[in-house]
Design a protein that fits this description.
Radius of gyration: 20 Å
Distance between the termini: 59 Å
Number of strands: 0
Number of helices: 17
Order of helices and strands: HHHHHHHHHHHHHHHHH
Largest sheet: none
Strand content: under 5%
Helix content: over 70%
Structural class: mainly alpha
Shape: globular
Length: 389
């Protein structure tokens, strides 16, 4: 019966997602937001219709889906793209991470939060949601300098964010010294890059040979699953590993017409379940648990994105019309932030409830409202690009 219930539920979710996708097209809303809302509706916070056998799939599905996203984002880090937009990608991504940490930390401290706790929350606020932003870019159908730069930023900003979080964790937690958090970040990021190189270089040389110029779906799935599995086994970042492997394939596979283009055709079922189950895991009660502090945290992160995004864009030399567009386009936030929060909560048990509640409440808001801001920004930039009023 459990197996039958699992299959029936998955079938209903897939069909229900078609309705959510259709509503998104009719209302011009991001399909990510519609899927998250559908997941929230059927999840424990609302109707609680999902059996445990389905919710248990969230972890493996999220790993596969996010590894696919990482491959595609890594594929944006080609030599040509970096030559055109490398200055902007570096300047904006670093500015966003530094600015978000500083503004959220300073603002929460002024609101009476402990400076040490505020610093951790500021570092957690740096995380974005690469899956949501990538899907919104793909849904928009736009391909221009702004979307190329945005994809490049999303590919690396969580790496800077993780380094910033590790540094802040080391500053606050002096009981174990500096070594543990920094070595942990080095292992996570450095190990992920090394694994990506070890998989990406052979894949660049060997794939796309059976069908000349284009990897087969079987090759794409095999490399993605191998990367995700080895990353988990070695306890390194599967996001970084996927990004590094994707970058290697995109830059070294000269015989590829489209480096792992097949991933775009096979990732949607995984992404669909990922967003549905992510919506189901959102906890509405957390939004109200800390009252005005939750509102302050969300407001400070929005302000930080807008300010630091504009500063980074000015340093990066982007066109004036795009100067204030990167901040709102980078509002979505999800799994990486929750992962940081879990580490911080385990390190500081006395702050665990506050850290987890604030992070989850922000995730609820930014997962639903963030894609709306990203899509609206893409359309506004496109209208400006075309010279429309």
């Amino acid at each position: 019966m459990d197996q039958a219930l699992l299959l029936i539920t998955l079938g209903v979710l897939f069909l229900g997602s078609l309705l959510a996708d259709k509503i998104g097209h009719l209302t011009r809303l991001p399909r990510v937001t519609m899927l998250l809302l559908l997941g929230l509706l059927v999840g424990p916070s609302c109707l609680d219709l999902l059996p445990a056998s389905v919710t248990d799939l969230f972890d493996p599905i999220s790993v596969v889906a996010l590894t696919m996203v990482a491959f595609l984002l890594g594929g944006e880090l080609t030599r040509d793209n970096l030559a055109r937009h490398g200055r902007a990608i570096s300047a904006i991504s670093l500015s966003i991470v530094l600015g978000t940490t500083a503004i959220v930390w300073g603002g929460l401290t002024l609101f009476g939060v402990s400076p040490e706790l505020a610093l951790l929350l500021g570092a957690i606020a740096t995380a974005t949601d690469p899956a949501a932003i990538s899907d919104v870019i793909r849904q928009s159908g736009l391909r221009n300098g702004f979307t190329e730069t945005l994809a490049g930023i999303v590919a690396i900003d969580d790496v800077w964010g993780l380094l910033m979080f590790s540094l802040c964790l080391a500053l606050v937690d002096q009981t174990g010294g500096w070594a543990a958090p920094l070595l942990g970040a080095g292992r996570d990021i450095g190990g992920g890059i090394l694994l990506g190189l070890c998989i990406g270089i052979p894949a660049a040389l060997l794939t796309g040979r059976l069908k000349q110029g284009e990897p087969l779906q079987t090759e794409a799935i095999g490399v993605v699953l191998l990367t995700a599995g080895l990353a988990i086994w070695l306890e390194v970042s599967f996001l970084v590993a996927g990004m590094a492997a994707g970058a290697m394939i995109a830059n070294l596979a000269r015989h590829h017409e489209h480096a792992f283009h097949e991933i775009e055709y096979i990732e949607w079922p995984f992404m669909l379940l990922f967003f549905l189950l992510a919506g189901a895991s959102l906890e509405l009660d957390a939004v109200w648990a800390l009252g005005w502090i939750s509102l302050a945290y969300v407001g400070l992160r929005v302000a930080a994105r807008l300010i630091s995004g504009a500063v980074g864009a000015r340093i990066g030399g982007v066109p004036r019309a795009q100067m204030h567009a990167y901040g709102p386009a980078l509002l979505p936030q999800a799994g990486v932030a929750v992962g940081m929060a879990l580490v911080a909560a385990e390190t500081f048990p006395d702050w665990a409830a506050t850290i987890m509640t604030l992070t989850i409440s922000a995730t609820v808001f930014f997962e639903i409202a963030g894609p709306l801001a990203t899509l609206a920004t893409l359309r506004r930039v496109d209208r400006t690009w075309q010279g429309a009023p």
